[in-house]
Specification:
Distance between the termini of chain B: 74 Å
CATH architecture of chain B: 2-Layer Sandwich
Order of helices and strands of chain B: HEEHEEEEHEH
Shape of chain B: elongated
Number of helices of chain A: 17
CATH superfamily of chain A: Cytochrome-c3 Hydrogenase, chain B
Strand order of the largest sheet of chain B: 1-2-5-4-3
Structural class of chain B: alpha/beta
Largest sheet of chain B: 5 strands, mixed
Number of helices of chain B: 4
Mean pLDDT of chain B: 86
Distance between the termini of chain A: 39 Å
Radius of gyration of chain B: 21 Å
Helix content of chain B: 25-40%
CATH superfamily of chain B: NADH:ubiquinone oxidoreductase Nqo5 subunit
CATH topology of chain B: Beta Polymerase, domain 2
Mean pLDDT of chain A: 87
Strand content of chain B: 15-25%
Oligomer: heterodimer
Amino acid sequence: MIEQEGKEIKTKEIALSMGPQHPATHGVLRLVLELDGETVVKCTPHVGYLHRGVEKLGENRTYLSALPLTDRLDYISSMSNNVGYVIAVEKLFGIEAPERAKYIRTIMCEMTRISSHIIWLGTHALDIGAMTVFLYSFREREWLLDLFEMTCGARLTASYPRIGGVRNDVSQQFLDSLYEFTQQFPARLDEYETLIDKNRIWLKRTKGIGVISAAEAVNWGLTGATLRGSGVDYDVRKAFPYDVYDKVEFDVPLGVHGDVYDRYRCRMEELRQSNRIIKQCIEQLPTGPILSPEAAKFVLPPKESLFKSMESLIHHFVLMTKGPLTAPAGEVYSASEVPKGELGFYIVSDGTGTPYRMRVRAPSFVHASVLPRLCEGGLIADVIANIGTIDIVLGECDR
Amino acid sequence: MEPLQIAEKIKQAFPGEVAEITSFRDQVSAHLKKDRLFDICRMLKEDPELDFDYLVDVCGVDYLDKKTPRFEAVYHLYSMTRRHFIRLRVQVPEEDPQVRSVVPIWQGANWHERECYDMLGIRFEGHPDLRRVLLPEDWEGHPLRKDYPVEGFTGEEDWHGYTEVVELSKKLKEFEWGN
């Protein structure tokens, strides 16, 4: 839409609706872009297409049966969401999981982080035009998903952690295969980096794009690698350690410039650190029970015992209909570091078996809100890079 | 700083504004009256000793028939530099569900407040763009209120957004192959 006016070439602003069905928006995100030529003048994100009312549903379910809802938040990293929910409820009830269960949960969280970051890397590179990484990265993800399947039977929506522990123990075969994975993974990571790290197109499209300063990133409430790319040292695993994050060694990689490239570097380094954590956890994994004795009031009795024991049947019935009867009245906020950032659960209990209010503080929701700040003034092609770099999943954003 | 000290500090700086200080599982909540919330937040952000630079979360809770005032807006604050945490619970009456927006202090409050308005109908005064965020803009009611049924209101008519889609799909079927 170019009009000639004397010597100057003037352009008319046009509004472009990008999404909700668009391959580069990573789900059903809709952006209304007002463009002046190729420059984005205004960007308005519209979310909510995947809203399922998780918070409302959580208020009407028992603590146990609200667990599968958390799978469906960030559906590519369900284990971390489960753990985030479970530690919030554990904190509310004041119980603690046994050591072995904590180690297993940490392993699962880090496996999820690797599989989520791998998807992020693949799709982000695909959006910007480096297709090969995508094909390679799904190879490693497949391995991890097979391992999830080996443990709990599900590849995506795991619901494996339980309040006060985990559902079942991991097998030796699982640990062997995972250890093999940790041995091979660093070399695979190097392989990805040879594909894109010195790729001139990749560098041109990521360096100096979507810059956000440290103070501004904190002010906007960014978390996770999106924040650390700007050089702010905040990681929930270090600030409020849960499970066994205080017993393993790992570094928190930080960026400097706060652009797309630095966030990419942060996530790549996080992959290495996750690998390191998993390795330490396997080496340190203690033997012992996987469910705390106090967890009996949350966890359903084994199915076989329902046919033999009256007690189990009653217990099962009460758990499913009323929930745990000994809930204390109070409120907790509990945060966990999921691959996307800080996932917080604010649970208000009124002393009954269902949460009175279950608030989910979703990192993707906050990250989606910063899109106008990143995109406005930039080129339309960089919108794609910006959506990729904040790493959002709309299931979590919309809840 | 210890969270209890922070709550005490707010109480000293704004006498009469802190209704109560409660603590549960080592987390401290300061229950505030809503009138001077903005000033309290500005102090929490700007006082170098407190330096709450990160607004973790804003959400609303509906205490229907349990408490008066009915609503509460809950703010979670954390300081990246000082490493301390506090929760503010602001009382919001049902008749006039309005609170001053804290967006001028923390940009991150923008969407949280929009969501709170969307879900509970608490209005944030001075918010730059207070529209519904998750639900359609012409949705009626606020789903997270306790008097809103889980399965939605089952009136005689379906929501017009739904009926429009059904009508459209009927129309499109006329063009289906094989007819």
